[in-house]
């Protein structure tokens, strides 16, 4: 039971940065924009979070710095893809490479110096409940905030007029523009929100999960976040499930290495990514289900007429 509880808790923690990044990208793609630069934005957020921490700033300010850094990086993508209408695939890949380089430059002086990580919070009464308390009420604040953001994104997309406008733009920007929606402005806001969430996901890695700066510490999580949006068929609820699946596979491979399974360590390390690919292949076979929430104008440029 203790092993199960520890693996359950570790899965929730491992999934948290993916939830942040994937929810942000979900909103971006719902607006009809495809940003492949999540990996770079997460790295920028991770680096700026550590930089602010070692500069002596409070942890909340370090998190804010990571969020702003991710949003600023996404703004570069927005200028290229929305204003100059460059190819969104190329602009996103350029952002991923740019973010990798910038983060390495910012973090070059930190080495492997440990960070004073954000600690789990103790909820009187709830945290002391046997089994249940250890499984659900002994996490750091950002884990709980990821669930808040899941609820907020779900509510925004499906319960607000602004969310309806965003989804309408993702379906048909020309029609949305014709009835008065500011397509480019709304897409810019969506892109910056996605960058902010990716920056927060990166900060979680460097300030909580690791906690220290390691170059390329996202280890492909940005690309997994992109895959999770497809896995989720553009639905927030499935993003959570996909993040837990990947987090669980990550913990399983770590556990397998810890107990000394006679399997090459490289294969165990690849296990989470192989599982993600397998799930995506299975889901993509049901094209009708995927098409239900697919943003029709995804990755298509838009130029206002008139």
From TrEMBL:
One of its GO terms (molecular function) is transmembrane transporter activity. It is found in: Cell membrane. Keywords: Cell membrane, Membrane, Transmembrane, Transmembrane helix. The keyword Ribonucleoprotein does not apply. The chain crosses the membrane at residues 6-26, 33-54, 60-82, 89-106, 142-158, 188-212, 218-234, 241-261, 267-284. Its main location: membrane. One of its GO terms (cellular component) is plasma membrane. InterPro entries: ABC_transp_permease (IPR001851). Pfam families: BPD_transp_2 (PF02653). It is a multi-pass membrane protein. It comes from the Bacteria. The keyword Transmembrane helix applies. This is Nucleoside ABC transporter membrane protein. It comes from Primorskyibacter flagellatus. The lineage of its organism: Bacteria, Pseudomonadati, Pseudomonadota, Alphaproteobacteria, Rhodobacterales.
């Amino acid at each position: 039971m203790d092993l199960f509880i520890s693996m359950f808790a570790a899965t929730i923690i491992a999934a948290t940065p993916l939830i942040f990044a994937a929810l942000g990208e979900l909103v971006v793609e719902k607006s009809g924009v495809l940003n492949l630069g999540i990996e770079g934005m997460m790295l920028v957020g991770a680096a700026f979070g550590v930089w602010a921490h070692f500069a002596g700033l409070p942890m909340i300010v370090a998190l804010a710095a990571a969020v702003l850094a991710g949003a600023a990086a996404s703004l570069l993508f927005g200028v290229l893809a929305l204003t100059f209408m460059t190819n969104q695939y190329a602009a996103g890949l350029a952002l991923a490479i740019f973010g990798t380089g910038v983060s390495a430059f910012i973090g070059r002086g930190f080495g492997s110096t440990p960070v004073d990580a954000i600690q789990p919070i103790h909820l009187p009464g709830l945290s002391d409940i046997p089994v249940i308390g250890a499984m659900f009420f002994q996490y750091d604040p950002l884990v709980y905030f990821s669930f808040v953001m899941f609820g907020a994104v779900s509510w925004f997309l499906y319960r607000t007029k602004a969310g309806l406008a965003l989804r309408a733009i993702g379906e048909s920007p020309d029609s949305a523009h014709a009835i008065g929606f500011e397509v480019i402005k709304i897409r810019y806001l969506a892109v910056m929100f996605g960058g902010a969430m990716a920056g927060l996901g990166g900060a979680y890695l460097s300030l909580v999960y690791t906690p220290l700066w390691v170059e390329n510490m996202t280890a492909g999580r940005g690309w997994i976040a992109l895959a999770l949006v497809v896995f989720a068929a553009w639905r927030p609820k499935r993003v959570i499930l996909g993040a837990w699946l990947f987090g669980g596979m990550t913990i399983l491979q770590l556990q397998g290495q810890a107990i000394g399974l006679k399997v090459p360590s490289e294969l165990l390390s690849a296990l989470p990514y192989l599982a993600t690919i397998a799930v995506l292949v299975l889901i993509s076979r049901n094209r009708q289900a995927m098409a239900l929430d697919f943003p029709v104008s995804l990755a298509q440029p838009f130029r206002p007429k008139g």
